[in-house]
């Protein structure tokens, strides 16, 4: 019958083999998803370039960004007992209504906007009341599709760019989760390796 020390060492060695195989599988998946993410980003920028070519460089730029912006997705994190962190993309419908206090949107640009309505020749312009929406909650303003910033009838390439970048966000969250899993697996592997070294050192100490 083998000593208890040998049995413990065999179990640790089997666990080390299992962990290292799992680590290799995770690294392979990570490499595959990174390549897919890089390809997705390149495709998104290519579609965006096609939109700029079709609509004009000045028609698809930061100048068309909305006066007020609210996020359409959020990233939620959860940490497991083994130290692994999971990243999950939450859409607008999922997190809508979770906040007790509505979020306030910071106004970007001039604090006062004046609407002028032109009349016929010889008549003065009517100046409407300035619109101050800086203190309005995001829920009252609603979430606007960013494509509307660039017009109503946008080219298909711009819609494809938006779809590609949205898929890239989900893929980036998966990559971050896998990276966290790899770090947790490495830490577990190091702890097992330390236990094995202690068993080997103890066996040598008590051997005749």
Task: Provide a descriptive summary of the structure in words.
The chain has 208 residues and is mostly helical. The protein has a domain at 1-60 and 71-91 and 147-203: Helix Hairpins, CATH 1.10.287. The protein is built from four helices and four strands. The chain has helices at 4-55, 92-95, 138-141, 156-206; strands spanning 73-79, 85-91, 116-117, 126-127. It has a two-stranded antiparallel ribbon. The two termini are 18 Å apart. The relative contact order is 0.19. The model is unreliable at 1-5, 100-116 and 127-141 (pLDDT under 50).
Blueprint (SSEs and pairs):
Layout: H1 4-55, E1 73-79, E2 85-91, H2 92-95, E3 116-117, E4 126-127, H3 138-141, H4 156-206
Antiparallel strand pairs: 1-2, 3-4
Helix pairs in contact: 1-4
User: Helix tally?
Assistant: 4
Instruction: Trace the largest sheet across and list its strands.
Output: 1-2
Specify Rg, calculated over alpha carbons. Answer: 29 Å
Number of strands: 4
CATH top level label of the domain at 1-60 and 71-91 and 147-203: Mainly Alpha
Rough outline: elongated
């Amino acid at each position: 019958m083998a000593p208890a020390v040998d049995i413990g060492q065999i179990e640790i060695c089997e666990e080390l083999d299992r962990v290292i195989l799992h680590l290799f599988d995770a690294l392979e998946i990570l490499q595959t998803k990174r390549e897919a993410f890089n390809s997705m980003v390149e495709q998104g920028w290519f579609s965006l370039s096609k939109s700029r070519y079709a609509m004009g460089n000045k028609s698809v730029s930061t100048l068309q960004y909305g006066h007020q912006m609210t996020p359409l997705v959020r990233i939620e994190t959860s940490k497991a007992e083994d130290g692994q962190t999971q990243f999950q993309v939450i859409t607008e419908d999922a997190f809508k209504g979770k906040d007790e206090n509505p979020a306030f949107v910071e106004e970007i640009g001039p604090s006062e906007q004046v609407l002028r309505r032109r009349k016929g020749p010889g008549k003065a312009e009517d100046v409407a009341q300035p619109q101050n929406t800086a203190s309005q909650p995001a829920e009252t303003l609603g979430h606007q599709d960013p494509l509307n910033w660039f017009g109503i009838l946008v080219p298909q390439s711009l819609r494809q760019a938006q779809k590609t970048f949205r898929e890239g966000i989900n893929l980036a969250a998966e990559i971050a989760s896998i990276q966290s899993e790899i770090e947790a697996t490495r830490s577990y592997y190091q702890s097992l390796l330390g236990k094995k070294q202690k068993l080997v050192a103890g066996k040598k100490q008590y051997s005749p």
